[in-house]
Specification:
The protein is an alpha+beta fold. It contains eleven helices and 38 strands. Helices cover about 15% and strands about 25% of the residues.
Length: about 725
C-alpha cells in the first residue's frame, strides 16, 4: 500500500504544481489581453461572440472574438483602457456587460433565450427577409404583366437592387412597421414620408430624392401588389412568424476570428456620416501604406474620412469646392477610393458643371476624340489626394464618366473606370505625373464587339451595328443615359457597338484586359464585358460580352451582376445581386467573336455558387442575401489561401469567403452592431513577418443616403478590421 500511495501522492502534487504554474504563465501572457470563459445554465457556450468595448480612446473602439469548444476566449492585443465585456450568440440573450482590465481572466455568464422569438431578434436581416412572399413565378408573363417585369427574376432583381442597395431589408427597422391600422396604408406612408425637417437643405434634398426612388420602385414593381406583399410580410411577423431556420454559430476556422471596430467619419456634430467604402493600400502591392491611415468616402458631405488605427484618431479631408456642398448642386457623392503605388488616394466624384474640355471633342487635340468624340455636360470626375504632401486634393476632368476604378500593373500605372454607358475610360497616372496634362493622360474606347469575325474593329463608328453617338454617358446608376435595349447584329459583315451601365471594374494582370459587370438596360440578366485595349488604342480596342446561360423558359441561373475580380489564373469572379457568386473561365470558350458572340455564346465557361443563408420561398434561384461588390484575396491576407473570393453580405452582417476547390463557404459574421453594410473590401499587409497579426481585411459600415439610421447603437459610422488567427485562443 505504501509503495503505491507515495508515488500517487507525488503525481498529484506535481499535477497541482503544473496547473498552478500554467495558470501563472497564462496570467503573465495576458498583459495586453483579456481572457475568460462563457457559460450559461447549460454549461460552456461554444461559438459565441465576446465583445470588448471602450470609450476611453479618441474614438469608440471594440474588439470581438469567438469562444472555443470549451467556452474559452482570448481578446488579444488591446490598447490600454477600461473595457466592458459582454456576450452575444445565437440561441442566447445578450448578456449584461462586465467591466474588465487588461490581464484579467473573466467569467462571463449568459442566459439561454426564453423563446424562439427572443432568440431570433439578433438574426441577420436575410433570415427575416426570407419570409417575404413575392408574386409567384406563374403570375408573370411576357405579355399582359401587371408590372414592367416580364418574369419573376426581373421583379426580384429590381426589388433587391432598389431596396437592399440602401439598407438591410429584414433588420429591426424594416421588419417592424410603425403605427396602427391598415398595414398597406402604413407602408405607403412609410415609403413616402421623410424622417422630418433636416437643418441642412442639401441633405434634405438628398433624402427627398431617396424617398422618390423608393416610391418610384414600388410603382415600377406594381404598386398594389408590392405594398400588399410588404404588408403581408410585416403582419405575419407581428403575429409571431419566425424565420424557418436559425443561423448557425461560427464553427471551425470561423472561431479564429478577431474583429476590430473603430467609430469614424464624424460630421460637424460628432455624428457618424455615411461612408460609401474604404481603402487602406494598393491592391497590387498590399504593403503600400503599411500601418498607415485608412481612407473612406463620406458619401453625403464631399469629404474623405480618415482613421489612424494606431492613434485611434478620426479626421476628414475636404474635397475642394464640395465642402461645404455647392448649394445649387443636388449631389456630389464621392465614391470609390483606391491607393496607387505612391500611397496616393484616387477617388471618383460628381464633377463640376459646364461644358466638356475641348480635347474631348476636337480630333486635332486627341486621337480618342477623333475616333469617338465625347460631350459630357456633367458627370463623375477624378479626385486625387496625396497624404504625404499635405496639399489640397486635385480635381481632374475626364471625357468619360467615372464610378468604380481599378489599377493595372502596366508601365503607365493606368487606372480604369466603370460608370460610362458608352465607353471604357482610363487614365495613365505616370503620364499625369510627368506632364500634368489630363489630355495626354486619358483615353477611352467605345465597347464594340468583333461580330464580323475579322479580329479587329472597323474604325468608322457610323458603320457599326447599333451605333450610338458619344454624347450618352450617364452619371451613375441613377441616370445611365442612352442604352440600347438589345444587341442586334443586323449586318453580320459589320462590327457591333453595345451600350449599358458598367458597374464594377477590374483588370486581368496577365493580358491587361479590362473586365466590367455591365447591367445593360436591365438587371436581368446583366453580363460581363471584356475590353482589350491593345498596343495602339483607340484603333486596337476590341470588346467581348458574356451573359449567364439563358434557359429554355427564359430564366437565368444568376442575374444582376455587380462586381468583378480576376484571379491569378485569369478566371473572372462575379458578384450577383440574386445572392450568388459566379465564375467565368474564358479559356473554355469555343467562340470568342463573330455574329453569334453577343452574350450567349459561351455557356461552357460558367459556374455558380449560392451565397450561404436562407432562400426566399417560391424563388428558385439565388438567396435572401445581396452582395455589393467582390474582393479577391490575391495575397492570402485572410489565411484561407490565394485567389479566395470574398463577397460582402449586405443583408447578412457578414463577409463570405469561398474555397474554390472545396466549394465551401467561410462566414465571417460581424455580430455587433447590426447593420454592417460593406461596399468595397481591402486587404493590407502591415508586417509580412508577423503572421496573422501583420495582416488584415478592411471593411466599413458603408451606407448610402440616410440609411445610417438602420445601424444598431449610437455610432453609425464604423471601420472594421478582420483577422483570422491560428486558433480561438491564439495571442
Amino acid at each position: 500500500m505504501s509503495t503505491l500511495r507515495y508515488p500517487l501522492l507525488i503525481l498529484w502534487l506535481l499535477t497541482i504544481a503544473c496547473g498552478l504554474a500554467g495558470q501563472a504563465s497564462f496570467a503573465a501572457e495576458l498583459t495586453h489581453h483579456i481572457a475568460g470563459r462563457v457559460t450559461s445554465e447549460r454549461g460552456p457556450e461554444a461559438g459565441v461572440w465576446v465583445i470588448a468595448e471602450t470609450s476611453d480612446l479618441k474614438t469608440e473602439f471594440s474588439r470581438i472574438v469567438v469562444t472555443n469548444d470549451d467556452g474559452r476566449f482570448v481578446v488579444p492585443d488591446l490598447p490600454k483602457a477600461k473595457y466592458r465585456l459582454w456576450v452575444r450568440g445565437y440561441g442566447l440573450r445578450d448578456s449584461k456587460s462586465v467591466e474588465a482590465a487588461l490581464g484579467q481572466d473573466v467569467a462571463l455568464r449568459v442566459s439561454v433565450a426564453k423563446t424562439a422569438a427572443e432568440a431570433a431578434e439578433i438574426y441577420p436581416a436575410n433570415y427575416w427577409f426570407s419570409l417575404i412572399r413575392p408574386p409567384a413565378a406563374n403570375t408573370f408573363a411576357a405579355k399582359g404583366s401587371s408590372t414592367s417585369a416580364a418574369i419573376q427574376q426581373d421583379w426580384m432583381a429590381t426589388l433587391k437592387e432598389e431596396c437592399i442597395n440602401c439598407h438591410p431589408v429584414g433588420d429591426t427597422w424594416t421588419r417592424n412597421l410603425p403605427g396602427q391600422g391598415d398595414p398597406i396604408a402604413r407602408w405607403a406612408k412609410r415609403l413616402a414620408e421623410t424622417s422630418g425637417p433636416n437643418p441642412d437643405p442639401y441633405l434634405e434634398g438628398m433624402e427627398k430624392g431617396q424617398r422618390k426612388r423608393m416610391t418610384d420602385t414600388i410603382d415600377l414593381l406594381g404598386r398594389d401588389r408590392s405594398l400588399a406583399m410588404f404588408a403581408d410580410w410585416t403582419t405575419r411577423i407581428e403575429k409571431g412568424e419566425l424565420p424557418a431556420e436559425a443561423p448557425p454559430r461560427p464553427a471551425g476556422v470561423e472561431r479564429n476570428l478577431v474583429l476590430t471596430l473603430w467609430g469614424w467619419s464624424l460630421n460637424e456634430n460628432g455624428i457618424g456620416a455615411a461612408v460609401h467604402d474604404e481603402v487602406s493600400t494598393d491592391k497590387r502591392n498590399p504593403t503600400v501604406n503599411a500601418n498607415g491611415p485608412v481612407f473612406g468616402t463620406q458619401y453625403r458631405y464631399g469629404r474623405l474620412a480618415v482613421l489612424d488605427p494606431n492613434t485611434h484618431v478620426s479626421s476628414t479631408v475636404d474635397i475642394p469646392g464640395f465642402s461645404p456642398p455647392i448649394p445649387h448642386r443636388v449631389i456630389t457623392i464621392p465614391h470609390n477610393p483606391m491607393f496607387d503605388q505612391k500611397g496616393r488616394v484616387w477617388s471618383t466624384i460628381v464633377g463640376p458643371e459646364g461644358t466638356s474640355p475641348s480635347y474631348c471633342l476636337e480630333g486635332k487635340q486627341s486621337p480618342f476624340a477623333q475616333y469617338f468624340p465625347r460631350r459630357l455636360p456633367t458627370g463623375r470626375q477624378i479626385a486625387l489626394y496625396d497624404p504625404a504632401s499635405g496639399k489640397p486634393m486635385e480635381l481632374i476632368s475626364t471625357c468619360f464618366n467615372t464610378h468604380h476604378l481599378a489599377f493595372d500593373t502596366d508601365t503607365d500605372n493606368t487606372v480604369y473606370f466603370s460608370g460610362d454607358t458608352t465607353v471604357v475610360g482610363w487614365f495613365k497616372t505616370n503620364e499625369w505625373d510627368r506632364s500634368h496634362d489630363a489630355n495626354k493622360a486619358q483615353g477611352w474606347c467605345p465597347v464594340v464587339l468583333d461580330t464580323n469575325g475579322d479580329g479587329k474593329i472597323t474604325p468608322d463608328s457610323k458603320s457599326w451595328n447599333g451605333a450610338v453617338g458619344g454624347e450618352a454617358g450617364g452619371g451613375g446608376e441613377e441616370g445611365a443615359g442612352k442604352v440600347a435595349k438589345s444587341i442586334d447584329v443586323t449586318d453580320p459583315t459589320k462590327d457591333t457597338q453595345i451600350t449599358g451601365f458598367p458597374y464594377g471594374v477590374n483588370v486581368d494582370y496577365h493580358d491587361h484586359s479590362v473586365w466590367s459587370a455591365i447591367w445593360r438596360p436591365s438587371l436581368l440578366p446583366s453580363g460581363i464585358s471584356r475590353m482589350e485595349v491593345g498596343a495602339n488604342p483607340p484603333q486596337t480596342c476590341k470588346a467581348e460580352y458574356y451573359e449567364p446561360p439563358r434557359r429554355p423558359d427564359g430564366t437565368y441561373p444568376a442575374y444582376n451582376g455587380r462586381g468583378v475580380e480576376v484571379d491569378s489564373k485569369g478566371v473572372v469572379w462575379i458578384a450577383y445581386g440574386s445572392g450568388q457568386l459566379g465564375r467565368f473561365d474564358r479559356r473554355k470558350c469555343k467562340v470568342l467573336n463573330g455574329p453569334t458572340a453577343t452574350g450567349q455564346h459561351c455557356p461552357e465557361g460558367w459556374s455558380f455558387y449560392d451565397m450561404p443563408g436562407p432562400k426566399i420561398a417560391g424563388v428558385s434561384d439565388g438567396t435572401a442575401d445581396w452582395p455589393y461588390l467582390i474582393w479577391l484575396d490575391l495575397h492570402n491576407i485572410l489565411g484561407l489561401g490565394r485567389d479566395v473570393p470574398v463577397l460582402p453580405g449586405n443583408n447578412s452582417d457578414s463577409l463570405l469567403a469561398l474555397d474554390p476547390q472545396a466549394g465551401k463557404w467561410t462566414v465571417i459574421r460581424v455580430p455587433y452592431p447590426h447593420g454592417l453594410f460593406p461596399r468595397g473590401l481591402d486587404g493590407r499587409i502591415d508586417d509580412p513577418k508577423a503572421g496573422w497579426k501583420g495582416r488584415g481585411l478592411w471593411a466599413a459600415y458603408g451606407m448610402t443616403q440616410n440609411a445610417t439610421i438602420h445601424i444598431e447603437g449610437t455610432m453609425p459610422g464604423r471601420l472594421v478590421k478582420v483577422q483570422l488567427r491560428p486558433d480561438p485562443l491564439a495571442q
